[in-house]
Amino acid sequence: MLLVDDEEAITDVFGSSLEHQGFTVVVAHGGKKALECVEEKTPDVVVLDVVLADMSGIAVCSAIRGRSSVPILMISGRASEADVIAALDAGADDYLVKPFGVAELVARIRAALRRSGSVERPDALMTVGPITVSSGRRQAWLRGQALSLPDKELALLEALVRSPNRVVTRASVMRDVWSSEGAVSNKALDAAVRRLRQKLGDVGDCIVTVRGVGFRLEAPE
User: Fold this and answer.
1) Whole-number mean pLDDT of the chain?
2) Cβ pair 32, 54 in contact under 8 A
3) CB atoms < 10 A from the CB of 158, how many?
4) Chain segment 76-133, per-residue pLDDT in tens
5) Are 195 and 161 within one domain?
6) Which of 44, 50, 95, 142 lies in disulfide reach of 76, CB 3.0 to 4.6 Å?
7) Residues 188 and 205 in one domain
8) SS3 sequence, 160-184?
9) 3-state SS assignment for residue 15
10) 197 and 135 in one domain?
11) Would you say 131 and 154 are in contact if contact means Cβ atoms under 8 Å apart?
12) CA-angle at 27, arms to 21 and 32, nearest 5°
């Protein structure tokens, strides 16, 4: 899902709470960034604040609706009938007035998903030895401790964990993670593998380079 609000305090609180409910949350601080995310991330649902610094939330809603049928839940401190009608006319599926609790927000989101026929992305956990990866929460853990991994390294680790003790080819990783097979991606892949080994500490040596082919995650004892 995509959460759009200018205030980091709000996105931090609600983003964290929604992730604990099993949602995969992408945050956009501003309308222009939200429109970029809709194109790049194809979210299942959008939670959009009416008041944004760079452009009106109503304008953002209208722009999203012009290119996508994704459910849109508008949130606002404005409760007048005119404000609600403006949001619904712009294409919003629901309108929630602040202040509200996380439980109500989650209920509204799930209702919007049911109406659209969408389903929440499963929070599939994959574990190899002391390494666990959650594809739904976009998070990895080593011996229960969360790892701080950027998107590319997390996607690389997920690809290796999905196929333990099997070779994952360079071509497949660059296609799935970098969407490219050029020389730049080869260098980026090698650098990402080095960084990932370092962050895995004593488990890092379990990522074995298969020269000329790719990489293999040897399941730790």
Assistant:
1) 86
2) yes
3) 19
4) 998 898 999 999 999 999 999 988 888 889 888 988 887 776 554 445 678 888 999 8
5) yes
6) 50
7) yes
8) HHHCCCCEEEHHHHHHHHHCCCCHH
9) helix
10) yes
11) no
12) 150
For the record, the structure tokens of 79 come out as: 């409760």
pTM (predicted TM-score) = 0.55
Tokens of 217: 């995650």
């594809």: which residue's tokens? Answer: 135
DSSP H/E element including 193? helix 183-199
Domain of 12, in residue numbers: 2-116
Which token pair is 214? 């790719």
- E strand or H helix at 36, and its extent? helix 31-41
For residue 46, give Cα distances in angstroms to 8, 156, 189, 215: 17, 27, 32, 37
Q: Is 147 helix (H, G, I), strand (E, B) or coil?
A: strand
Name residue, tokens 């759009």. 4
